Amino acid sequence: MENFVAFNPTSLHFGRHILEGLAPTVRQYGDRVLLVYGRGSVKRSGLYDRILRSLKEAELALFEYGGIQPNPVIEDVEAAAAVGREHHVEVVLAVGGGSVIDSAKAIALTIPVSHPAWDFFTGKTTPTKGLPLITVLTLAATGSEMNSIAVISNKEAYYKAPLRSPFAFPKHSFLDPEVTTTVPRDYTAYGVADLIAHCMEVWFGAGDCPMSDRLVLSIIKEAMEAGPLLLTDLRNYDLRSRIMYAATLALNGLTTQGKVSGDWCVHVVGHVLSLLYDVPHGASLTIVYPAWMHFFKDQIGERIALLGSEMFEERLNVDEAISRIENFFIALGCPAKFRDLDIPNLSVDDILEAMEIGKVNGMHLKLKPADYPKLVEMFL
Q1: What are φ and ψ of residue 72, in 5° steps?
Q2: Element (H, E) at 151
Q3: Is the residue at 6 inside a domain?
Q4: Closest of 90, 98, 83 to residue 149, by C-alpha
Q5: DSSP, residue by residue, 123-149
Q6: Which of 102, 196, 315, 332 is the most buried (most CB within 10 A)?
Q7: What is the tens place of the pLDDT at every residue in 217-266?
Q8: Which residue, among 94, 119, 107, 113, has the nearest Cα to 10 in the 3D structure?
Q9: What percent of the chain has a predicted confidence (pLDDT) above 70?
Q10: In whole angstroms, what is the distance from residue 144 CA to residue 134 CA?
């Protein structure tokens, strides 16, 4: 078991009616607020009006940037940061899922500086400060509400890049499961798949920490139990609560403590598919994961078989385990092969080029550029 320092400064507000405390919490950090949100669902659900009313009743000066894309892009980060600078905002409020929250993290880091936001993602410069960020989560999936990670696409650079900084942690995150009851079935399923994938990438990472393994398995089993039930009863508050909490725990740092690292190769390949073809993030993971396990089964066959045996509570060999995991994703309604998405203008060369630019690799199991064509062939 490795040495570690546990650090997570985000205050999590979870449950019914917690949004009643949003405006007083925002006010603690300033009176001038930049509200960041997506492309319409927040307004259709009535949440936008509800939050707007509470902020105005608290006499906060409110400025807005809406229209964040499901696969967030650097152009929106720059445009929103310009709005923030123009109006001298003091706090950023993100209302949305992982894409909105990831964008808001980058926006909060970019407003105080004069250089391009993309410099943070290329490593040209490192964040040393950021505006306070408060989030209202509307989609249980990425765990961005309680971690320091943001992932943004730059289509011109042919790269969807991650950023990790202690200054990117939200100060407060508000999670009311009732807010997620309007999320459609497909994106609910993708969220379940995403949280399971986060756990799997820790499971296949480097280092030995039995406690972390048990936490990972518990989160996966919670998702496997509550997820399929939720997909048949989308407005069920208790099931929404269980998935929302599981998604937060899957990527808030808890599961990686005591290990060397996770192995995030599948996520990085998934980012390539999202960059090029706007594949929903969770869907990209269910496409790549079975292929990735087949690719590495000679190296980690026992580990794959153990995961499958624990997930399905019966003794499985490696091929049976991969098949059962793939079929579980299919049963959720997620794609298992890229061809299932019927993407027009598919280009293997474009995928390979983006993988080369993104330096796709694993933190534990190494994927060489010479391996890219075989892996791509497998998930296509």
Answers
A1: -65, 145
A2: strand 149-154
A3: no
A4: 98
A5: TSS-------EEEEE-S-SS-GGGSSE
A6: 196
A7: 999 999 999 999 999 999 999 999 999 999 999 999 999 999 999 999 99
A8: 94
A9: 100
A10: 12
The verdict on 146 and 34 lying in the same domain is yes
Q: Residue 363 — very low, low, confident or very high, per pLDDT cuts 50/70/90?
A: confident
One-letter amino acid for residue 267 of the chain: H
**List of residues 6+ apart from 96 with CB closer than 8 A:** 36, 37, 38, 42, 68, 136, 137, 138, 139
d(CA 197, CA 191): 10
Identity at 322, one-letter amino acid code: I
Domain with 340, as residue range(s), is 185-379
pLDDT higher than threshold 90 for residue 359: no
Q: Which candidate, 173, 143, 140, 97, places its Cα nearest to that of 262? A: 143
pTM for this prediction: 0.96
For residue 240, the tally of other CB atoms under 10 A from its CB is 23
- In this predicted structure, the answer to whether residue 270 has a pLDDT above a threshold of 90 is yes
Out of 158, 179, 200, pick the residue that ends a domain.
Answer: 179
One domain for residues 214 and 345: yes
| DSSP code of residue 253 | S
Both structure tokens of 49: 């009006």
Q: 269 with 375: CB under 8 angstroms? A: yes
pLDDT of residue 361: 87
Other residues' Cβ atoms within 10 Å of the Cβ of residue 269: 27
Last residue of some domain: 110, 144, 179?
179
| C-alpha dihedral sign at 272, 164, 81, 70 | positive
Residues making up the chain, counted from first to last: 380
204 lies in some domain? yes
Q: Left, alpha or beta for 123 (phi > 0: left; psi -120 to 50: alpha)? A: left
Is 318 within the bounds of a domain? Answer: yes
Is residue 245 domain-shared with residue 339, that is, in the same domain?
yes
Crossing angle between the packed helical segments 185-203 and 281-312, to the nearest 10 degrees: 60
pLDDT in tens, 7-50: 999 999 999 999 999 999 999 999 999 999 998 889 999 999 99
Q: Is 122 helix (H, G, I), strand (E, B) or coil?
A: helix
What CATH number should be reported for the domain holding residue 89?
3.40.50.1970
Instruction: Examine residue 83 and state whether it is found in any structural domain, yes or no.
Output: yes
